[in-house]
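I am writing to request your help with a piece of structural work I have in hand. I set the record out below, with my sincere thanks for your time.
___
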Amino acid sequence: MITIGVLGLGATGANVVRQLRPTAKEGLDEREILVHDRDPKRQRDLVVAVGFAIRGGTSSLSGASVVVLASSSGDHGRQAKFLLDRGVNVVSLSDSPDDVDDLLALDGYAASVQRSVVVGAGFAPGLTCLLARFAGDSLDVVEEIAVSKAGTAGPSCARQHHAALKSEGRDWIEEKWVTRRGGSGRELAWFPGPIGARDCYRGALPSPTLLQRRYPKANRISARVSATRRDRLTSRLPMLRPPHRDGGPGAVRVEVRGRKAGSYETLTYGVMDHPSVAAGTVAAIVALSLSRGDLPHGSFGLSEVPEPVVLLGELHRRGVKVARFKGTAEF
């Protein structure tokens, strides 16, 4: 019996649960899912809606071998340490740079207790890390990686997006970290349709931190997030209206430049999907991989997994489709 817990049942957490639900082909008696949310009604409603093999748990999700942290960002490091102390593997969906730093700091401890902490297993970072690794594996030398994201998942993601635009971020340039002002560095990025072209800006984004671990010799690693003029003008103020439960469709784009057989190449991949759906799917397949013992011990991002193609193949099977840019504005 595989027992997986999900902590936080917002838009993304609910999609994690749906993706974890066993199918008849997989064997209906082979998997149990424990769920917990601060809102008891939301937890009860999801248990009723999803049904088989799903039951409400406690905040400790006792009995789970893997727990997916889909709760609001800001405390994932402490939660992960609590779970590691109890012999539980962890998958974090947080896109907060502080959470990512705290989770990566658990690397040595997680390895010592022979458990895993997968960091940033969502849309961006997460899917973007897999795309960067897939592109990087096609090159002899990776020189530049540029990540762009458009759209948000649930309210927690929208709040983090809002905070990112007003906060300093970091780019990896010529083997050192360079601090960048949030909301600067306007760049037009073309995403798969129907998202299309969006202005993207620097901010407090964790993708460079995670990708640098895999590509420490790259000349440049950067990340940007799409924003409107209103987003930038209001980023230093409290959010003017409550965010939607689900932010609707979004997209990611990853551009990797480097050398192969003596020539310079640029590989660009993108995905258009609802961020809450794609992020939930990524986290679910990572949790299942951990439950099977397919991933190493320690704390790491998805650019460091042994077989990124396997995870991308499973994402494709579940409906998360990757497009490759071939030199025009159409995917």
Remarks:
- Residues 60 and 82 are 9 Å apart (CA to CA).
- The domain at 2-123+278-311 is CATH 3.40.50.720 (Rossmann fold).
